[in-house]
Amino acid sequence: IQLTQSPSSLSASVGDRVTITCRASQGISSYLAWYQQKPGKAPKLLIYAASTLHSGVPSRFSGSGSGTDFTLTISSLQPEDFATYYCQQISSPSVTFGGGTTVEIK
Amino acid sequence: QVHLVQSGAEVQKPGASVKVSCKASGYPFTDYYIHWVRQAPEQGLEWVGWINPKSGDTSYAQKFQGRVTMTRDTSITTAYMELSGLKSDDTAMYYCARDIMHTQLWYFFEYWGQGTLVTVSS
């Protein structure tokens, strides 16, 4: 199963609402997660099961979708949110990641 | 708290093998699956496989079958990933990551090691 993220990069300002999409090549129910990765660091889990906010993750992050189309939304972009975001599907026994979306400062 | 601490950077020649360790602490080691994920320089993430620390059962991504072996030593709460027949495109940061769910396989990676850079170069 392939995951296609869009856009591959975006420029935004602090306070902006940002939406990243992830499309699966076939239906994956809600077996999708979102990760944030900053340069030189390991990824950090943000959302799992498509819409469940992981413990400790700020509520400005939210996830939605099922089947083939999913979105990650940051309601009000903060300076610490500039990073690369990856979606991940878990259609057992295979795991694949999207190509990533880099959120840059405008 | 949960920590996954990986072994240091490695430089290996093409055709050689590399073994990376992942020392777990702060939780019952045998109660959570450990996954391995790699990331080539400036590239995305690629799942390598998992090990069940309790049973030693493993499952590998098809791409790595025949070249990767995952093991564990429960006495020292450490998981290992060995990759053989190294090629230049195996150059990557290799991460261990703990599954989110207690005693079940959910494939969501809650805690990550700091990464081990493996460089394959002649």
Taking the sheet with the most strands of chain A, its summary is: 7 strands, mixed
Q: What gyration radius of chain B follows from the Cα positions, in whole Å?
A: 14 Å
Global structural class of chain B = mainly beta
Helix content of chain A: under 10%
Total strand segments of chain B = 11
From the spread of the alpha carbons, the general shape of chain B counts as globular
Could you give a short account of the major beta sheet of chain B? 7 strands, mixed
Q: What is the string of helix and strand elements of chain A? A: EEEEEEEEEEE
Count the beta strands of chain A. 11
Low-confidence stretches of chain B at least 5 residues in length (pLDDT < 50)? none
| Rounded radius of gyration of chain A (Å) | 13 Å
Order of helices and strands of chain B: EEEEEEEEEEE
Oligomer: heterodimer
Q: Whole-Å distance between the termini of chain B? A: 40 Å
Summarize the structure.
Chain A is mainly β and 106 residues long. Chain A is 0% helix and 50% strand.
